[in-house]
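>> received
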Amino acid sequence: MPLLNATLVPAPDQVVVRLTGDADLSTAPFVADVLTQAGSLGTRQVVVDLGSARFWDCSGLHALARFTRELTVAGRACRIVGAQRETRRLIGMANLAGDLQLDGLPTAPARRVTSTGRTPLREPVAVADGLVAAGHR
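>> returned
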């Protein structure tokens, strides 16, 4: 079972929820409970810091999206900070980008240049039995 910790840091106008550790289906109820606790403090804004969290699936992110929608309906806001590139990618794959207010732009990896001086459109990620699978960024 993954280990996920949460810290709530209340302030007069916002509360910060700092998630640390690994999140997956087994920790989604914990994420939902922590967010409910943060929401019950009644601040105008909840800031969720994901900088030290790693998401192995979308369960916790769906809980975060539900919470964000509930706050929005109540005239409040939820802002996501510190989301790592992998987390942002998972958010995009789960089609949750429109439901979450992410701070900043995702950090793009350095572009690889081939010996011809061109940036490849795809990078090979695996070779098996002579077949090459291409990955997309």
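>> The longest strand covers residues 45-55.
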